[in-house]
Amino acid sequence: MKCLASTHAAALAACLLLALPAAQAADDAAAQKLARDGGCGTCHTVDHTDKGPGGLKPIGPAWRDVADRYRGQAGAADELTRIVRAGSNPYASHWKGKVSGIAMPPNAVVLDEAQTRELVGWILALKPQK
Ligand code: HEC
């Protein structure tokens, strides 16, 4: 699509409208690949109604619940990127009593900082579950 070459404002606007859903789908595919590469699905699902591997209850919080919890909080993306890379502190659990896992192990070995930031950004942008 030659959106940027367009000088006509209406054509440009139409271009952007068409491009948006495609960009979202590309984001979803990229995030799902990162989550697969990172092995996050061993412990996380997107929706809390999804089942984990082997039909068991997921070990960590559903990512849509993570988005709901931190929505609108300044610094959440930085803080969660740090926690995902370093692992969570079992003595200061953010999801105590809400999930079966005690702590998240460090994920810095599987995803680099930019990849983690991209995935966390996608998680935080998830819309509330219907
Ligand atoms: C071995 C299980 C496991 C794996 C693998 C795992 N997590 Fe977690 N994750 C957890 C648990 C347990 C928690 C809840 C921690 C807490 O209570 O503070 C959690 C919490 C989180 C949170 C919320 C943190 C907070 O402080 O609220 C995010 C975001 C997250 N995980 C993302 C990821 C991503 C991205 C990956 C893959 C790169 C991943 N997790 C891999 C178990 C896991």
UniProtKB/TrEMBL annotation:
Gene3D superfamilies: Cytochrome c-like domain. The keyword RNA-binding does not apply. GO terms for molecular function: electron transfer activity; heme binding; metal ion binding. Residues 26-127 form the Cytochrome c domain. Keywords: Heme, Iron, Metal-binding, Signal. Residues 1-25 form the signal peptide. InterPro entries: Cyt_c-like_dom, Cyt_c-like_dom_sf. It holds the Pfam family Cytochrom_C. This is C-type cytochrome. It comes from Rubrivivax albus.
